[in-house]
Amino acid sequence: MVFDLTDEQGMIQDMARSFAQKEVLPKAAEMDETGRFPEELVRKMAELGLMG
Q1: pLDDT tens-digit map of 24-48
Q2: What local confidence, expressed as pLDDT, does residue 19 receive?
Q3: Residue 41 and which of 6, 24, 28, 50 are 20 to 30 A apart at CA?
Q4: Would you put residue 37 in left (φ > 0), alpha (ψ -120 to 50) or beta?
Q5: 50 φ, ψ (degrees, to nearest 5)
Q6: Nearest 5°: CA angle at 46, between 11 and 25?
């Protein structure tokens, strides 16, 4: 079996990683404390096509 990502899958992975590092990580402590995921992040994820 070949488990390598396609070029498209690799681009999606890179985009998701970059988003998490730039947008989610800076807010992670606050999200842990409040138990809430900011709506603005959900909107940004949707704009990037990361919501399914």
Answers
A1: 999 999 999 999 999 999 999 999 9
A2: 98
A3: 6
A4: beta
A5: -95, 10
A6: 70
